[in-house]
Amino acid sequence: MTHSSSLGFGVLGAGRIGALHARNIAGSIDGARLVAVMDANPDAAQRAAYGGAAVCDDVDTLLEHPEVEAVLIASPTTLHAEQIKAAARAGKAVFCEKPVALNLKETYDALAVVREAGVPFQIGFNRRFDTGFREVARAIHAGELGRPEMFRSQSSDPTTPPESYVATSGGIFLDSVIHDIDVARFMVGDIKRVTALGRVLVADYMNDYGDVDTSILTLEFTGGAIGVIQNSRRTVHGYDLRVEVHGERGKLVTEAERATQVWKYGEGGIQGDYIYYFIERFRDAYRAEVQAFVDSVREGRTPTPGAEDAVEALRVALAATKSLKEKRPVEVSEITV
């Protein structure tokens, strides 16, 4: 591949995220083109095969396509590790939605194959590519806030996921809160200890899988700062997300509550609309993260966030899960293979 050529993508998984990525690659990612799509549901794959992309029956067929140079993995989490290994062994650059796996051993094994193959790898922590999140991180890293002292992240979904999804998700900390954990690491730094509290207040079926739908996670950073992450699977006013970082020189806040940046004033009061879910909230960030991956691969740079970020966010999420189950603070250092 030369710098002037486009990067040919194969997409594994054509659900809501995979289809979004496929559409972006086909039409709005500079230097990329959609070559092939594969999904267990052929109809879903066909719908996501934008621009005349090939529809493949299985992973091997997609990897053997002569024009596929990079693989974007957006399949169910339980398939990620094996698909990463297969793509890396085939010499393809790999972009994978989070997490790599639901445990450290499978994660380490998959990333070892990536390292041995010498292929580029990026993990899909899309919030790092949101303009507000990036500016907060930039300002902190530039020292504009002084020493960070407190971090707070709130992520609340408008509705609970289907029971079939919860059954294989790994729980709220590995499925959802891991995004907030990555943001905390991205902005403030490594986390050494967590304490989790959780309840089932929305969907009783969570109990059948040892999961919760409402959680609070306190963080202790290695640099001395403290933090809290709040998550709920029910927010009747839509997707509710904000991050605050308090430091010695002030506070930084990023949030985006409304889909349309308009307030309506009238006899009935002041009204505004809202963003329904994460797809709408992070639509631009999803495009930006893949653009960053493409640029890194074409320019020979190491993509970021990479393998270390995938591992460390997972370790904190596993520590949070352990804390919830054992009802005690957990050192991240306790989480080993």
TrEMBL record:
- InterPro entries in the record, alphabetically? Gfo/Idh/MocA-like_OxRdtase_C, Gfo/Idh/MocA-like_OxRdtase_N, Myo_inos_IolG, NAD(P)-bd_dom_sf
What are the entry keywords? Oxidoreductase
The record places domain Gfo/Idh/MocA-like oxidoreductase C-terminal at: 139-332
Gene Ontology MF, one: inositol 2-dehydrogenase (NAD+) activity
Q: What is its EC number?
A: 1.1.1.18
Catalytic EC class: oxidoreductase
For the Gfo/Idh/MocA-like oxidoreductase N-terminal domain, which residue ranges apply? 8-125
- Work out whether the entry's keyword set contains Oxidoreductase: yes
Q: Oxidoreductase as a keyword?
A: yes
Q: From which domain of life does this come?
A: Bacteria
Protein family according to the UniProt entry: Belongs to the Gfo/Idh/MocA family.
Q: What is this protein called?
A: Myo-inositol 2-dehydrogenase
Q: Which species is the source of this protein? A: uncultured Truepera sp
